[in-house]
Batch of 3 targets.
Target 1
Amino acid sequence: NAGVTQTPKFRVLKTGQSMTLLCAQDMNHEYMYWYRQDPGMGLRLIHYSVGEGTTAKGEVPDGYNVSRLKKQNFLLGLESAAPSQTSVYFCASSYKGGNSYNEQFFGPGTRLTVL
Amino acid sequence: DAKTTQPPSMDCAEGRAANLPCNHSTISGNEYVYWYRQIHSQGPQYIIHGLKNNETNEMASLIITEDRKSSTLILPHATLRDTAVYYCIVSRGSSGTYKYIFGTGTRLKVLA
């Protein structure tokens, strides 16, 4: 199993450009998440999804949109990139475990620079 | 979700036990305590979790106080490869969104 994969690994954008980050998981997980991590900080939740066709806002959703058209994929879009969105973006997925614990599996990250 | 408080950094000699504390005084009854670590800029890696009882796996031990307001992650024999940022997170275990709130973690440096 590949686990959680992210595409691309690195990207440089100019202010105002748009792009889409792709997250894919092969573990048949229901839940998927997008986080961003700024230097010296912990991860902050941008958006998440509890199933195919559903999305919800996290802590820092402004400037981002997401879509979950297929269970295995979770897309993060930046419509008009700003320098403040320079960050490392991590995707994660987890099993819908009912009353049990809920371990999240993280991808390797996408390093985005907005000039 | 409850917030957690961790010391910003700790050092540990190689081969010795590393004890990483976490305060989660506002934890509620259905929230689990999770520990993750992040090596360099890789994605966080799950270590261990617990609800009420102490837990042990091949990587670490987790000691949760009886009132559940704090916990300690123990790496029994730290190696240089354990140098990382360690995050303590509390999150709901019942049906819900399982959202994590990351703090800034503890930067553990294992010294040769």
Target 2
Amino acid sequence: DTGVSQNPRHKITKRGQNVTFRCDPISEHNRLYWYRQTLGQGPEFLTYFQNEAQLEKSRLLSDRFSAERPKGSFSTLEIQRTEQGDSAMYLCASSLIADEQYFGPGTRLTVT
Amino acid sequence: RKEVEQDPGPFNVPEGATVAFNCTYSNSASQSFFWYRQDCRKEPKLLMSVYSSGNEDGRFTAQLNRASQYISLLIRDSKLSDSATYLCVVGGSNYKLTFGKGTLLTVNP
């Protein structure tokens, strides 16, 4: 499968713990995006990389959130000191042609 | 006003029906437009890009009216497999996509 992959697919954690998610984009795609989706809502933009450069961050991305794409390939999203409000599906997408973004299966986070 | 607004739905239609989804967007500087489909507990999948000239892909037709800031999707001869949430999506100059809340479609036998 040459699509976008994300790991883990599911994560249950206790409030206050740190979690890290990984995204592997489609290999030739130079743009990588993170979104968050809660029940009944469309995905909301979090941040965007072009190669290894993080070019934009949403105001939704509080200082507890950090994302990296160190070699311009895979990316990680870390949430420190998780809160119950962080429970959501975290989606990664990649693109080559501007805006035609292809999504991974997501990581579903549950904070108890 | 929300950046992207869609019909709230849900829509329940019989097989073979024609169903139309409507969407408006608030940012006149938006540059790209899409419809995505999302199955329950799955990721969004690109259904089609939308152009001012309109575009058609089989049973699906998408239209864009920039002057009215309006996007539509028409599904003809609907199938059971068309049951999903349809997301109206708008892209800006920075490649960030803004999604509507989605409209749930259920096609009944």
Target 3
Amino acid sequence: AQKVTQAQTEISVVEKEDVTLDCVYETRDTTYYLFWYKQPPSGELVFLIRRNSFDEQNEISGRYSWNFQKSTSSFNFTITASQVVDSAVYFCALSEAPRGADGLTFGKGTHLIIQP
Amino acid sequence: DTEVTQTPKHLVMGMTNKKSLKCEQHMGHRAMYWYKQKAKKPPELMFVYSYEKLSINESVPSRFSPECPNSSLLNLHLHALQPEDSALYLCASSQAREDVNSPLHFGNGTRLTVT
């Protein structure tokens, strides 16, 4: 069975601080995909990044960066120089190849609050 | 702006009402999904349509009835709902159900309140 754990229920930081959101996953498949989604107060889930199990390269996109480590089954997300607009709930998700796109399992989410 | 459009944004209905939620996408995606999200919880899969055919029904009560009139549209018909059905209902689409690499694109959701 697959499982995604986001141990941080809520994080509150002051604007311009760096913040890391943790994600730990469990799967028995060798082929899987990891995702991060952002859900602002308006409700929609915004796709941020996808990473497959064979690509452990870290990725940077502007102020966002992701650290994928298979050895610790973690896919952590760091926001550098946080801004108020980053306030949202962030979900880490896992999809295993045999189950296809509808086999997406979400973590419980981390509510990030950026204070001005 | 999201490429998956959901209407209405908010809906309040009584337990004896019949209403419908609508979802539309024009990205050429062949898989469409309904998710239910309660407050402070992650989304939960309800239904999956693949090439306009119902592929998955995650043991959803019959008071929720999905419909996929064509590849761009997805409806969720509601009848005789209960107050505990109040939630955010999210529609999503992906290129293909079997494509695990394809991310889901979500709409803004319909916030449903059942009184």
